[in-house]
Design goal:
Rossmann fold, Quinate 5-dehydrogenase, 38% helix, six-stranded mixed sheet, alpha/beta, single chain, 305 residues, five-stranded mixed sheet, 2 domains, 15 strands
Length: 305
């Protein structure tokens, strides 16, 4: 049996473990939250190194993208580089393939997206493939990277401007402790009520809210007005939270195992374990081939049902 473990800086309250069969291989897939404790995450990674088939890094980005440029977070690299033997991934490879394909799937199979659809991406540099796909589809996209990660109330409206801003800010922002930019530990279990009120109009002006679930939840206003949520990891409690908040539909980009979706870092770890080759040698075509063979499709939940 192959074993894939995600070590996350997020809350241990979201931990989950399943056993599934994929392409004839038995997998044990597990998520372990470190409650924001960076040193504990380092220790767990060292403990797992060489003992499992692949490791995912959750609750943190190692690499983010803007155009053809890649930026690495200092904290993320420190976690990744502590693993010496086992393939370790952060989900960025899958974000540029599976999540891009999710938008294409919705364009082909549903009427959720068109050139007039107003999309709020709470953060685009950590999901640049999805950002490109929305833009290619002709949607009216607002990129909230400055708003939600930096606290600067400035909506970015084009990929070109996003790339320009990223080039100016990310070289310094990536040196900061990651918890200053993204909710980790217990922050993942709560909303920032003050900023939720402050940022409410960005949510309510959108038809679709897309991106990282913890960013979406952290600043979600008390009431939505029928928006579609396109995101990654959700538990049954998250689904109910969105239902009560007034979302009309939930689309998750990663497959559901035993009632919940796992993060892109976990699923990228699964794909790397199936490929059996070093992560550095894996290509986007490798991922897309496996995604097609596994028949991964977005999960769509109608909140009214």
């Amino acid at each position: 049996m192959k074993r894939v473990v995600s070590v996350s800086l997020g809350s241990s309250g979201r931990d989950h473990k399943v056993q599934v069969e994929l392409l004839g291989e038995q997998f044990e897939i597990e998520r372990l939250g470190m409650d924001g404790d960076f040193d504990r995450a380092l220790a767990k990674l060292q403990e797992l190194d060489g003992q499992v088939d692949a490791i995912g890094l959750g609750g943190i980005d190692v690499y983010v993208y803007a155009g053809n440029k890649k930026y690495a977070f200092k904290d993320g690299l420190k976690l990744m580089e502590t693993v010496k033997k086992t393939p370790v991934v952060d989900g960025s490879g899958l974000k540029n393939t599976l999540e891009r394909e999710t938008v294409n799937y919705l364009l082909r199979e549903t009427n959720y997206l068109n050139k007039d659809t107003r999309v709020l991406m709470v953060s685009a540099v950590d999901r640049f493939g999805m950002a490109q796909a929305f833009t290619t589809a002709g949607c009216d996209v607002t990129f909230g990277d400055l708003i939600f990660a930096a606290g600067i109330p400035y909506p970015i409206k084009t990929l070109e401007e996003l790339e320009e801003m990223a080039g100016k800010l990310l070289p310094e922002m990536t040196k900061l402790p990651f918890h200053m930019l993204y909710p980790t530990g217990k922050k993942q279990e709560s909303r920032d009520e003050e900023k939720a009120k402050k940022y409410a109009q960005y949510y309510r002006d959108a038809d679709v809210i897309a991106g990282d679930f913890h960013f979406i939840k952290r600043y979600l206003p008390d009431n939505l007005n029928g928006q579609i949520i396109i995101t990654n990891t959700t538990t049954a409690a998250d689904v109910e939270f969105l239902r009560q908040s007034g979302a009309s539909r939930l689309v998750t980009t990663t497959p559901v195992f035993e009632g919940r979706s796992f993060g892109t870092n976990v699923m990228e770890g699964v794909l790397v374990a199936l490929l059996g080759k070093p992560w550095e040698e894996v290509t986007p075509e490798d991922y897309m081939d496996l995604i097609e063979r596994l028949e991964f499709k977005p999960r769509i939940i109608d909140m009214a049902s």
